[in-house]
Amino acid sequence: MGHFRGIPDSVMRYEKVIILNPPSPPGYMSNKDSMGGFGQLYPAGAPPAPPLDLPYLAAVLRQAGIPVQVLEASAHRLSVKQTCERLGEAGGALLLVRTSLPTIDWDLGVCAELRARCRPAGLALTGTVISSLMKRIQQDASLDFAIPDEPDQTVLELVQGEPLETVSGLIWRSAEKGWVTNPSRPFQRDLDAIPFPAWDLFPHEKYRIPRSSNAGSLKFLPMLTSRGCPYGCSYCPYPVGQGLKWRFRSPGNVVDEMEHLVNDLDVEYILFRDPMFSLRQGRVVEMCEEIVRRGIKVQWRCETRVDCLDQETVQAMARAGCTGINFGVESTDPDIQKGVDRLPISVDEFRRKVALCKEHGIQTFAFFIVGLPGDTVTTILDSIQFAVEIQASWTQFTVSTPFIGTKLHKWAAERGLIAPDHYKLISSHEGSIGNEYLSPEQVHRLHRFAQFLQNNLINRRGILKNANARSAPYRAARWAADQACHTAAQGLVRMARWHFGRSMGLAAAG
Predict the structure, then answer these.
(1) I want to staple 220 with a disulfide (CB 3.0 to 4.6 A). Which of 269, 381, 399, 453 is the partner?
(2) What's the distance, CA 140 to chain centroid?
(3) According to the model, what pLDDT value does residue 173 have?
(4) 330, β-bridge pairs
(5) How many CB atoms lie within 10 A of CB 484?
(6) Residue 123: closest CA among 91, 101, 150, 100
């Protein structure tokens, strides 16, 4: 494993780095790793999820000999007051706070409290969405630095004393010039050179896979085997935060980390956070063969495109412990897929790959988006009907969300659907911008119908959805529930075509 470039200790700018995942806003649990690192808010009772960039950063700093302290205030469910009390006087430290799109205003308020109570020598904000939010961030008086994209080398150079104007990727406040934006830092290409995330500094025992995703509660941690996505769909934050260039780790390096998580941290489930896990299928097969060769026993799940999965790859993944694959359908209409810069995938391809995964005991998670540019009542109901027909293990409907920095945001702003600097989004499960055919309220109504089917009939709120149960009575009850819910959902979609077509008019129906 390689090492990041260091600078002599004699020029250290700060005594140590304190990495903070700040408290979640009241009434919510913040998942800053969701939505390509842009983040999402869930109800307060949701399990915590770690932003993967923070343990990576801690590992890089520790490898370079920088004293590192971590406070995962969100996972510990601390208040702002409790967080300040835990940190105490920060003294000569650089205090680094992770932010996200839905929490930016809250996090800046936290930063003001940290500045007043903890008095750190330096206060920095980091997160995937920083570059897109600088207009808002520059209004804050408490910050010294903003660090977008991959923060590892930027923070290292900042702490170890490089002249501020020479640190690529750094945005800093100058007494003379105000906010100064340095040239951006290229993405790290040699991912094998990055040390494994420093999970020992985090409360890793608190991270549990939700019951809605697995039969039972399992200790999990996320991993990245690659970064970037070359497809560049206009609604997706991944190209904004990780770039279009696909960068990948070697199979041996990936399996080394898996072995470490299982043997040293007792991890039972690994969630691969790659935007495109199987872009190079031969690499995935090689990785799976190495998992089997070493006898590593762990369940895992990934996300990919179904047209990047063939029978050999799926077979290898099943043998190596893969229990679930997430994939985006988004819309069944090829013209709508093309309209958001998505390379179209046919419905027949989805059907074949869902059946292939089921044949090998791998659960499928199908994602759909309601209200994309070009969507009508008809195209949305076609997608909802397909979600019922395909019978994936789990289904999720979100609304078309104009994340700031994405091409969809620009599209919506150009048409007056949102303000050019609009950023206040809590999640992709509520609210809508509408499109050229449907008002926000119409999209909301269609999405609400889709979620009713999703929660009560397709996913059944997790009732009789345990794929690991083997008893004959349970399997018979599950089969009966599947048939009854499938039939009921088909009937409701037929009724919805009549109802929405009538209430929203022929123009919206398309």
Answers:
(1) 269
(2) 26
(3) 96
(4) 368
(5) 12
(6) 91
**What is each CA distance from 164 to 34, 125, 144, 185, 245, in whole angstroms?**
31, 16, 11, 14, 28
Residue range 344-358: mean pLDDT, rounded: 97
Cα separation, 187 vs 121, whole angstroms: 28
For residue 249, which amino acid is it? R
CA distance 17 to 65: 11
Return the pLDDT at 403. Answer: 94
506's CB contacts (< 8 A; 6+ apart) are none
What is the rounded CA–CA span in Å between residue 261 and residue 221? 8
Q: Left (φ > 0), alpha (ψ -120 to 50) or beta: where does 374 sit?
A: left
Return the structure tokens found at 217: 């509660």
| Separation CA 305–CA 230 (nearest Å) | 12
* CA gap 319, 360 in Å, rounded: 9
pLDDT range class, residue 501, cuts 50, 70, 90: confident
Give the span between the Cα atoms of 481 and 479, in whole angstroms.
5
Distance between CA atoms of 10 and 58, rounded to whole angstroms?
21
**DSSP 3-state assignment of 124?**
strand
Distance CA 488, CA 342 (A): 32
Judge whether 157 and 147 are in contact, CB under 8 Å.
Answer: no
- CA angle (458 as vertex; 457, 459 as ends), nearest 5: 100
- For the CA atoms of 368, 370, 374, 377, the dihedral, rounded to the nearest 10 degrees, stands at 120
266 CB burial (10 A radius; 0-12, 13-18, 19+)? exposed
Report helix, strand or coil for 76.
Answer: coil
Whole-angstrom distance, CA of residue 58 vs CA of residue 152: 8
Which two tokens mark 327? 């994939």
What one-character-per-residue DSSP string does 236-284 give? -SHHHHH-SS-EE--HHHHHHHHHHHHHHH---EEEE--SSTTSSHHHH
Q: Are 288 and 252 in contact (CB under 8 A)?
A: no
Percent of the chain with pLDDT over 90: 88
